[in-house]
Design the sequence.
């Protein structure tokens, strides 16, 4: 075996959340290593990523603080000034940045652009060692250290291993942390469109009998669609000719933005929720989708992950010289700090999905009355907005 690398914090997985933690640790006296199978792919400037995220103000501030936000091209982002949510019986609720007293409810950012911005910072980070490409094969945990063996025959020793390696986390499995995964029996269909009418920075969401349809604003007259729907309906959408798909999506959104024209071909991903028995174990901490997966109807999955990264970085950077960064009490502090936000988002997203699920007798009047009621209660609306803003 090749000589071992020694580090304080070893992050497995350089997706958006793992990379943000690595960058947040920049400038620290701690040594950080990041293991990833492959770097982000460079995209042609004309291409639009079908995977986009709605970044909350709190997480925009986090990304700005760690020097990433300023590397994003403003021409490729859109600000969400308003959001309108429709029930299935003419009920609705509206939120606005103006009423909430904030610059924006969220910023719509392409996944690939954000990944490349994070990597551009990481590659210049003096306390960070990038181990890429590399695939983990075995993780050994002890009271004094952790050792990660890689497919190259190399190994890395660390005081703390952070699993940022997604819903099928290798680190979580190796640490024997139990995960409870429950599929929704749905797919999330994504695609981008040109729209005939200006969206004016408005995000739209419809709770329909065939699922939850969301339109998120992109620059100029473009929108990104996420349609969370049954697997059978999703397959129908995926094989539709472009013109038929555009008409179907426009009709489903009550032709709110006029005619649509397809920019990127539709794609789909399975939807599930996942909880873990613990976010921490001996010399292990989990963040992002390795620690929790929620329904995408609120667009909060990556925001929860960034919240994990920000909190873990805060805890680790507060460690006094000489203290073990893998100390279980330290890791429990991180877990406790994240518990409330994760639980609230889990119940909110799962509860809404169940409430609006087609075929639930007796719930129609309740759910739609609730939307209309909240829309008229300004104080309650602002509480909801403030929570979503982070």
Sequence:
């Amino acid at each position: 075996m090749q000589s071992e690398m020694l580090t304080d914090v070893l992050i497995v997985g350089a997706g958006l959340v793992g990379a943000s933690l690595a960058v947040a640790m920049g400038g620290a006296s701690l040594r950080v290593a990041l293991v990833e199978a492959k770097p982000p792919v460079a995209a042609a400037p004309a291409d639009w990523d079908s995977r986009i995220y709605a970044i909350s103000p709190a997480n925009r501030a986090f990304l700005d603080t760690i020097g990433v936000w300023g590397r994003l091209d403003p021409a490729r982002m859109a600000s969400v000034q308003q959001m309108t949510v429709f029930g299935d019986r003419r009920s609705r609720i509206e939120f606005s940045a103006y009423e909430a007293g904030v610059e924006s409810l969220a910023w719509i950012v392409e996944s690939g652009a954000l990944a490349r911005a994070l990597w551009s910072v990481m590659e210049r980070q003096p306390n960070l060692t990038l181990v890429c490409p590399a695939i983990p094969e075995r993780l050994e945990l002890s009271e004094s250290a952790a050792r990660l063996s890689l497919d190259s025959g190399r190994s890395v020793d660390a005081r703390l291993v952070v699993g940022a390696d997604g819903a099928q986390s290798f680190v979580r499995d190796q640490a024997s942390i139990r995960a409870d995964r429950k599929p929704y029996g749905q797919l999330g269909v994504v695609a981008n469109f040109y729209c005939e009418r200006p969206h004016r920075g408005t995000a739209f969401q419809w709770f329909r009998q065939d699922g939850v349809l969301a339109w998120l604003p992109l620059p100029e007259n473009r929108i990104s669609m996420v349609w969370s729907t049954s697997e059978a309906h999703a397959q129908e959408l995926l094989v539709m000719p472009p013109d038929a798909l555009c008409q179907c999506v426009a009709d489903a959104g009550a032709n709110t933005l006029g005619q649509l024209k397809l920019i990127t071909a539709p794609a789909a991903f399975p939807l599930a929720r996942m909880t873990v028995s613990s976010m921490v174990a001996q010399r292990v901490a989990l963040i992002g989708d390795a620690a929790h997966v929620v329904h995408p109807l609120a667009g909060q999955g990556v925001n929860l992950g960034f919240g994990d990264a920000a909190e873990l970085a805060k805890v680790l950077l507060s460690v006094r010289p000489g203290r073990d960064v893998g100390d279980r009490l330290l890791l429990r502090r991180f877990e406790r700090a994240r518990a409330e936000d994760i639980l609230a988002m889990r119940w909110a997203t799962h509860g809404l999905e169940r409430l609006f699920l087609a075929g639930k007798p007796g719930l129609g009047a309740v759910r739609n009355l609730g939307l209309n009621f909240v829309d008229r209660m300004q104080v309650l609306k602002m509480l909801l907005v403030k929570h979503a803003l982070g």
